[in-house]
Amino acid sequence: xxxxxxxxxxxxxxxxxxxxxxxxxxxxxxxxxxxxxxxxxxxxxxxxxxxxxxxxxxxxxxxxxxxxxxxxxxxxxxxxxxxxxxxxxxxxxxxxxxxxxxxxxxxxxxxxxxxxxxxxxxxxxxxxxxxxxxxxxxxxxxxxxxxxxxxxxxxxxxxxxxxxxxxxxxxxxxxxxxxxxxxxxxxxxxxxxxxxxxxxxxxxxxxxxxxxxxxxxxxxxxxxxxxxxxxxxxxxxxx
Length: 239
Ligand SMILES: Cc1cc2nc3c(=O)[nH]c(=O)nc-3n(C[C@H](O)[C@H](O)[C@H](O)COP(=O)(O)OP(=O)(O)OC[C@H]3O[C@@H](n4cnc5c(N)ncnc54)[C@H](O)[C@@H]3O)c2cc1C
Known about the structure:
Layout: E1 21-22, H1 25-34, E2 37-44, E3 47-54, E4 56-58, E5 61-67, H2 71-76, E6 78-94, E7 102-116, H3 120-134, H4 147-151, E8 153-159, E9 162-168, E10 186-189, H5 205-210, H6 222-236
Antiparallel strand pairs: 1-9, 2-3, 2-6, 4-5, 5-8, 6-7, 6-10, 7-8, 7-9
Helix pairs in contact: 1-6
Bound molecules: flavin-adenine dinucleotide.
């Protein structure tokens, strides 16, 4: 049985460095799940706009949220075509020549049309899913959103119609012209790790004392933690 894959189309076939392209769901989803942030790209009246936002994934759907008055949310939720990208930067690649410096990275471009999530129940579920995606186990411990908060917030869902991933890993590409040139060559890894939590004293000493410990241990890699949280959400999701 072949692994499920996003269709490789004229839009999503990676032409530049095709060997770095991936289309199987596992590869694409692993990158989406390890990223905290996405960029949503769309065109209004001929003007390209790319809006950074937090997001999460459920199956082949991506979700994001914002103020109901947000131009991005109003526009993309009308079914406008959007391209959502995520990028994880893994390393600087230093070659003997400037032209052959590179980056190690994992990125995804996902295409589809977004729609608004209607109704209070749907919005409440989305609000919880959003919190759980970043902070597993936390939604149930929080003050529930008020009607006004829900009314002034929009959630959008985008079915991924097509998607591609592109991954560069490894060292410097060897080039005859670079051989023996006396410049340092190699890879400088880049990682995002969590710092030590700082409790918010403005909520009162008792609240600080009561705070549920954050689910993420100090010093952990953010991409691995997010991927782990996403796997847990997958396991908990109804079939
Ligand atoms: C951190 C980072 C730094 C980069 N720096 C550079 C740079 O300095 N110069 C440069 O030329 N390129 C850079 N790239 C690669 C860049 O994202 C494009 O892949 C490349 O520019 C080719 O673009 P294209 O539209 O010609 O690709 P094409 O291969 O023609 O694109 C066709 C299709 O392939 C898929 N695709 C292309 N690129 C990506 C991608 N990155 N991720 C997922 N799917 C993709 C899309 O579905 C796209 O529609 C960088 C990528 C990352 C993540």
